[in-house]
Specification:
alpha+beta, six-stranded mixed beta sheet, two-stranded antiparallel sheet, disordered C terminus
């Protein structure tokens, strides 16, 4: 008998907190469970890790399968392994937070999996410990945003400075001083003008910018 046979075996799953930003609010993608136990209860997007893949690969695969997207930002949140967290079997879940451009998420895929966007401040009671996963992911997102401009993965390719500031405010849940916010952006020099004007909010319009991913990657590691 090998050493491993003397120890219990668990299921390993990944649960993904998929964030999207639109209508000036941060949203989370959820769907009804399609299996027992608790079939039909709202939950995060997730699935089990296959025998031949890492947990990181499983998380990326699941996001791609459920959204149809290949380009997104994904980072691990942590492990959730309370003994009674899943009423069906002993399951340890490795959770991830994911940032996608909501405008690129095909609505046919949303309908296929009966998924829906819910504002993070209006999140209902989810399956098991999924609310705790969202809360932890949100805190990590807030912390990382203070030194790594990952919020650009939530925005369209072109945006105004006002749109960018509102996004930051919605993630932090607090108002930011306009002058200081724009001064910091200018000093960091990670955004460049597109030369175009957005006139959807006023006749005068506002300058459109884009994030310089290539220039940023030359200075720091920006993991996808």
């Amino acid at each position: 008998m090998s050493f491993y046979e003397n120890h219990p075996k668990f299921y390993i799953s990944t649960d993904c907190i998929i964030f999207g930003y639109f209508n000036n609010f941060l949203h989370v993608l959820i769907r009804p469970r399609d299996m027992q136990p608790c079939k039909g209860q709202l939950s995060l997007m997730g699935g089990f890790v296959d025998d031949d893949e890492s947990v990181d690969h499983a998380a990326s695969r699941i996001v791609s399968e459920l959204t149809g997207l290949q380009d997104f930002y994904i980072q691990q949140v942590g492990a959730f392994g309370n003994v009674d967290r899943d009423p069906g079997e002993r399951v340890v879940s490795i959770s991830y937070y994911v940032l996608i451009k909501a405008s690129e998420y095909n609505d046919d895929m949303r309908k296929k999996y009966n998924a829906s966007w819910v504002r993070i401040d209006e999140l209902p009671q989810l399956y098991g410990d999924h609310n705790a996963m969202v809360e932890k992911a949100h805190k990590i997102l807030q912390e990382k945003l203070s030194w790594d401009p990952i919020a650009f993965y939530l925005l369209p390719n072109s945006f105004t400075l006002t749109q960018l500031q509102v996004l930051y405010e919605k993630i932090y849940g607090a108002d930011l001083d306009k002058r200081n916010f724009r001064k910091k952006l200018t000093e960091e020099n990670h955004i460049v003008t597109t030369g175009e004007i957005d006139k959807t909010t006023s006749k005068r319009g506002a300058n459109l910018f884009r994030f310089d991913f290539e220039g940023y990657n030359n200075d720091k590691i920006f993991k996808l």
